[in-house]
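Entry 14. Structure prediction run on the chain below.
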Amino acid sequence: MFFLRRYSRIIALHLVALMMAVTMPLGVAQAALVGTDQVVAPSQAEADRTRVAAFIAREDVRGEMRKMGVDPDEAKRRVAVMSDVEIQRVAARIDETPAGQSAAGAIVGAVVLIFIILLVTDMLGLTDIFPFVKRNDKN
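Output returned:
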């Protein structure tokens, strides 16, 4: 009993603080700006849908679809009912495919990249491949 009388004020103060914290309003209104991605996303989906539809409407693509046994009109109808995420994936795949690039172009690009890497390492003194690169050895 002595313990309860001695610490009753401290316990009461803690209980009052706890009750005030529990009964405070929780919902606070927050204002925020509308992000660009929220505004641009619908227009980007429409642009992607238009790009895919234009790709399917090309005569060479329609000819290839016929060769593969796909009806171009059916493909057009299926593109019309695709979700925005699916259209975005297809449009990204259209952009990833090489347009007229041959294997020779890739080989030439790789040779040029290797030449530049070897030239830089020779200039830094890490290799000694090219005789026209002057090295400043202070030995």
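The mean pLDDT is 78.
Filed with the rest of this week's runs.
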